Amino acid sequence: MKCYTPLDLQAMDRYHRANFVNCLSGFKPSTLIVTQDPAGLSNVALFTNIVHLGADPTLIGFINRPKEATPHTLKNIESTGFFTMNHVAMGQIEAAHQTSAKYPDGVSEFDHVELNELVRPEFTIPFVDGSPVQLGMKLVDIMPIKHNGTYLVIGELVCAFLEKSNVAADGFIDLAEAGSLSTLGLQGYYQPKFVQKLGYARPTV
Q: Tens of pLDDT along 159-196?
């Protein structure tokens, strides 16, 4: 194996380094986050840095890039206090990927990519129609990460929509069967495959 050091990374061109580094943390969820501005204009953008933060209460976070790079999602969440998280399905790859383009203020990505809003009476922000797992989230905290200007956005689950047939008796959700996709790096999309399910680990001594 070759040892890659920070000096090796700095020697790479910007695009090559971004691809390389974004693959190091492994496979990540492909998630479309929907927000709305105070006037009701929807924004949808692809995020992959999603993290489970706790089950009681149910907290899920994501990393938002610096405001100058991706301002709309964070600004909308700050304004309304709510957002939705939607797993990307197989037929949505190209459209989901296109939402990462920098559309200007006053423009909804829904009007320019092949994704449709799904309004549900249980929640104030739309979901993505066809997403196999749809989560309605309430803002808990926005934590600046001073080292690189990004933000950890923490939400609490308000409602979750998914097929009951994908939920096992013990609560395990088979996301591969549901059709949720994974992302690797900046542009690779993968369909997960179930390998093995193990029991709760306990000490052997």
A: 999 999 999 999 999 999 999 999 999 889 999 998 89
What is the model's pTM? 0.94
Q: Could you identify the residue written with the tokens 């309004």?
A: 119
Domain presence at residue 3: no
Alpha-carbon span 146 to 79, nearest angstrom: 22
Buried b (16+ CB within 10 A) or exposed e, 146-156: eeeebbbbbbb
Q: What's the chain's Rg over C-alpha atoms?
A: 18
Phi, psi angles (nearest 5°) of residue 194: -65, 135
Rounded distance, CA 51 to CA 62, Å? 6
Length of the chain: 205
Establish if 123 belongs to a structural domain: yes
Domain of 80 in residue numbering reads as 26-190
CATH number of the domain bearing residue 176: 2.30.110.10
Please count the structural domains in the chain. Answer: 1
Q: What are phi and psi of 64, to 5 degrees?
A: -100, 135
Residues 73 and 64: beta-carbon distance below 8 Å: yes
Question: For the segment 56-100, what is each residue's pLDDT rounded down to a tens digit?
Answer: 999 999 999 987 777 799 999 999 999 999 999 999 999 999 999
Q: Write the secondary structure of 127-148 as one string of H (helix), E (strand) and C (coil).
A: EECCCCCEEEEEEEEEEEECCC
